[in-house]
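Recall that a protein's primary structure is simply its ordered list of amino acids. Everything else, from secondary elements to tertiary packing, is in principle encoded there. The following example makes that idea concrete.
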Amino acid sequence: MSQKKEVQEENYRRLDQLENLVEAHTRTERHLAQYSNIATKEQQEHAKAVQRKREKQIENIENIVVTGRHNNEYDE
């Protein structure tokens, strides 16, 4: 497989991952808004921490696709 084809395949996988992360982020935001009255403080804080991690992952994938550079700081 050519290097160009490999990069293309990697970017397709990254875009799928990006889509999944954005969908999960959106669902969690909606749930936080809808169920904040019944969730415990700890559950809300955990959800917010997960959201921050997703936001970093989204930013990293966008950066990789646009610039081709990977930032390991977001891999957690």
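The first helix runs from residue 3 to 35. The mean pLDDT is 90.
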